[in-house]
Specification:
The structure is a single chain. The chain is an alpha/beta fold and 341 residues long. Helices cover 38% and strands 16% of the residues. The protein contains 13 helices and twelve strands. Strand 2, helix 3 and strand 3 form a beta-alpha-beta unit. Helix 8 crosses helix 9 and helix 9 packs across helix 10.
């Protein structure tokens, strides 16, 4: 869709050979200021070398490299790329895009069908797509990149993470379900994180000894797979909506600054965002009624961490507007508003 772009897909053996055999000749055949997209660059044997040649020999070249795992391997890239590479996270189709670009205003269609373009645009829900995708993901990405051979154990772990997406990780329980040791579970979790199939949200804590400090929450990359593993239950709308809000936050803030908060009495906030000023914004997710929010956890949190904004994010594209819960003031907004906070 980008005018004048040169697109190369490294899934194709001929493309891989053309790039890897002689990167200088490959890039030299393009205009000096060409806009180039290399898709699935992780399929190359040494993508770092190819990118290094591009930026050193052709500094005016504008290059986009798409990969499912490359950003996590940044420490192994050549020094020539230092300061010349920016990472862009591409989530599934957002709710904002559903409404504004695709004209899809049925929230359940997005939550249950997911945000991959194929199933999202297909009016009929196809369970076969999701099961086939999971099998292909294991065979093509997990085995190829991480040499993981225990198919049954890995898939049992992955499917459990999908079904419990948005919950706290329980390593002992995951080890029991998958029939693997805790160290192996940790290795698989890191593989899934490198492949962007899951995202971990760490707990926020200060000096209080009643706060959860170590157990992350695990979110799957797409709600369609979560709904598939849960049996397409629309009763999960609140938890699924959290995924779309998290995608919007990750598009706006560094991942390490997006956390959640919970104390040992079970009081919890969906997300908190650390700001450079030292303030902490809190973000609560409500599908239907922002007035249904329980203000008690917020009041307790603000008694300890006073500085920051309070936001309630809903699927309704209106506002923003403010409401009060007791002494607390909240900004009610859509996901699109998070870009401006």
């Amino acid at each position: 869709m980008v005018p004048g772009i040169h697109h190369f897909n490294c899934d194709l053996p001929s493309t891989r050979r053309g790039i890897e055999d002689d990167p200088r000749a490959f890039f030299g055949g393009l205009a000096e200021d060409a806009l180039v997209a290399i898709d699935e660059i992780d399929r190359l044997d040494d993508p770092g070398r190819v990118l290094s040649v591009a930026v050193q020999q052709y500094p005016d070249l504008r290059l986009m490299a798409a990969s499912s795992s490359m950003p996590r391997d940044a420490d192994t890239l050549p020094d020539a790329l230092a300061g010349r590479m920016a990472e862009l996270h591409l989530p599934p189709v957002s709710w904002q895009e559903c409404v504004g670009t695709f004209g899809i205003e049925d929230l359940d269609r997005r939550l249950l069908g997911g945000g991959l373009p194929g199933p999202l645009l297909d009016p009929e829900r196809d369970p076969g797509f999701f099961s086939e995708w999971i099998e292909t993901f294991y065979a093509r990405d997990v085995v190829a990149l991480f040499n993981t051979r225990n198919r049954r154990g890995f898939l049992a772990l992955f499917q459990e993470l999908l079904g419990d997406s948005g919950g706290q990780l329980d390593f002992g329980r995951l080890a029991g379900i998958s029939g693997q040791s805790r160290p192996t579970v940790n290795v698989h979790l890191e593989s899934l994180r490198c492949l962007h199939a899951i995202h971990l949200v760490r707990p926020f804590h200060g000096e209080g000894n009643r706060e959860i400090v170590s157990r992350p929450k695990c979110y799957a990359f797409d709600t369609g797979f979560v709904a598939f593993e849960r049996g397409w239950r629309d009763s999960d709308r609140g938890r699924l909506w959290e995924h779309l809000v998290l995608d919007a936050l990750r598009s706006r803030f560094p991942e390490e600054d997006i956390l959640y908060w919970r104390d040992k009495s079970g009081r919890e906030l969906d997300f908190v965002v650390r700001r450079e000023t030292g303030a902490v914004d809190l973000v609560e997710c409500e599908v239907v009624d922002p007035y249904a929010l329980d203000p008690e956890p917020v009041a307790l949190f603000r008694s300890r961490y006073a500085a920051g904004g309070n936001y309630i994010v809903t699927p309704v594209e209106s506002g923003p507007y403010r409401i009060r819960h007791g002494s607390l003031t909240f900004t009610v907004c859509a996901t699109s508003y998070l870009d401006s906070i």
